[in-house]
Specification:
alpha+beta, two-stranded parallel sheet, two-stranded antiparallel ribbon, 6 helices, 37% helix
């Protein structure tokens, strides 16, 4: 990623609260690592948080390395759910909520407070197809963000 794009697109607030920052500029993979990128973009008002210690990098390898990746995150299910037969709507909505972890999480993805990873999008679209809803399905919105998924 180019530094200009990084400044334009990177938002420290997108990182989960449990995210680990890295400050080890001596690591050979620092320039490719999400943890290091997050660490170098910590806002001035953030003074405490999780960190990866420099000794995590041994022989040029770090077990916490996470490749920098942009993803096309999706949100919003209402349009797809409105296309369902009434008998299927509650079932599929429940299956999506279970897959995402809870009804609360489901609503965060529906409102765009959280974004679905490409893998989560694929799972949901496959659920529709497996239940006989063939054809192109689209989520209500998409945004490109850095991927903080594990």
């Amino acid at each position: 990623m180019k530094d200009q794009n990084e400044k334009t697109l990177f938002n420290y607030a997108d990182a989960p609260k449990s995210w680990y920052n890295c400050f080890n500029s001596a690591c050979p993979k620092a320039g490719e690592c999400m943890h290091f990128m997050t660490g170098k973009n910590v806002p001035d008002d953030v003074t405490l948080g999780n960190a990866i210690y420099p000794n995590a990098c041994k022989n040029g390898e770090c077990s916490f390395f996470k490749q920098i990746r942009m993803m096309r995150g999706a949100y919003g299910f209402n349009t797809m759910l409105n296309e369902l037969k009434r008998k299927d709507e509650e079932l599929l909505r429940g299956m999506i909520a279970d897959y995402l972890g809870s009804n609360t999480t489901y609503y965060k993805f529906n409102r765009g407070e959280k974004l679905l990873t490409p893998e989560q999008q694929e799972w949901i679209l496959n659920l529709f197809h497996k239940n006989g809803y063939i054809g192109e399905k689209e989520f209500e919105g998409y945004r490109y963000i850095y991927d903080f998924s594990e």
